[in-house]
């Protein structure tokens, strides 16, 4: 029996390799970073690290491990104070920390929507949302990406409690959700809007929900700290009743070891550092404008740090990526099953620390690649 299972697994891996979509772990490569989510460079910012180290020197107890679920032994005064800090920063009632955005979305969508409810999902919403929905007894219906008319047609036909799930900045397209119009639709039909801010958090202040003063019109927001914030973990932002309900009923919270204090301290440290260094966001927007001036085809929105360059076909995509890597320029090739076959693209992540010379070299090589086709 074990041999049969091994043979099945080996065949699945062989099939992927034959299709050119086999995933493998790779080490970080030396060269120009156009593939990480460290948009503001906080993950490797020495001044940011020194600020944290100074606090850690005075509080060595922060090195203590999580030890258990927060409902058992994994809670701490620091974690509670950081949650209060986050809620105040985002001008929302409460915040609840999670080890990752993935776990936060699992908690929300497995716990809140009930049997006979319906979750309306943007077709490009993050996999963590989809996995959370699979754990729910609610019905799930997708609507066409950023298509308000299609969403409204779904809302008009839906009976019972309805939830709408979107990202504010889409991770593989690099375009923006029409959050204000989504909030209007949700209010019109009595639906609850949940927004994943993973890639907008830090890049656009405290995220586009906060930036657009939509906190009271969005039922719950997920902000993550492993991208532009240069830390780790995530928080759900919502009303106090929602947070208390999650603490009592969300299995991904109840049965997960709490974040160690060091992670919570890093999150607070990086909020403060970013507030004191607003030029980092300005530097990033400068790099985005410089890249956009090259006029390459893109699926992405203006001002987005994620620029998705269409490159249909797995072989063509691999050739483009290899051309860049030969010159020390590292992007991310987005292939099936992450995106549909035929919609492959190079995902170019822009950062505050990318130089104009690096961006120029990248865009020149991409233009040469497209011209040679």
TrEMBL record:
<keyword id="KW-0808">Transferase</keyword>
<dbReference type="InterPro" id="IPR015421">
    <property type="entry name" value="PyrdxlP-dep_Trfase_major"/>
</dbReference>
<protein>
    <submittedName>
        <fullName>8-amino-7-oxononanoate synthase</fullName>
        <ecNumber>2.3.1.47</ecNumber>
    </submittedName>
</protein>
<dbReference type="InterPro" id="IPR001917">
    <property type="entry name" value="Aminotrans_II_pyridoxalP_BS"/>
</dbReference>
<dbReference type="InterPro" id="IPR004839">
    <property type="entry name" value="Aminotransferase_I/II_large"/>
</dbReference>
<keyword id="KW-0012">Acyltransferase</keyword>
<comment type="pathway">
    <text>Lipid metabolism.</text>
</comment>
<comment type="similarity">
    <text>Belongs to the class-II pyridoxal-phosphate-dependent aminotransferase family. BioF subfamily.</text>
</comment>
<dbReference type="InterPro" id="IPR015422">
    <property type="entry name" value="PyrdxlP-dep_Trfase_small"/>
</dbReference>
<dbReference type="InterPro" id="IPR050087">
    <property type="entry name" value="AON_synthase_class-II"/>
</dbReference>
<dbReference type="GO" id="GO:0008710">
    <property type="term" value="F:8-amino-7-oxononanoate synthase activity"/>
</dbReference>
<dbReference type="Pfam" id="PF00155">
    <property type="entry name" value="Aminotran_1_2"/>
</dbReference>
<dbReference type="InterPro" id="IPR015424">
    <property type="entry name" value="PyrdxlP-dep_Trfase"/>
</dbReference>
<keyword id="KW-0663">Pyridoxal phosphate</keyword>
<feature type="domain" description="Aminotransferase class I/classII large">
    <location>
        <begin position="37"/>
        <end position="363"/>
    </location>
</feature>
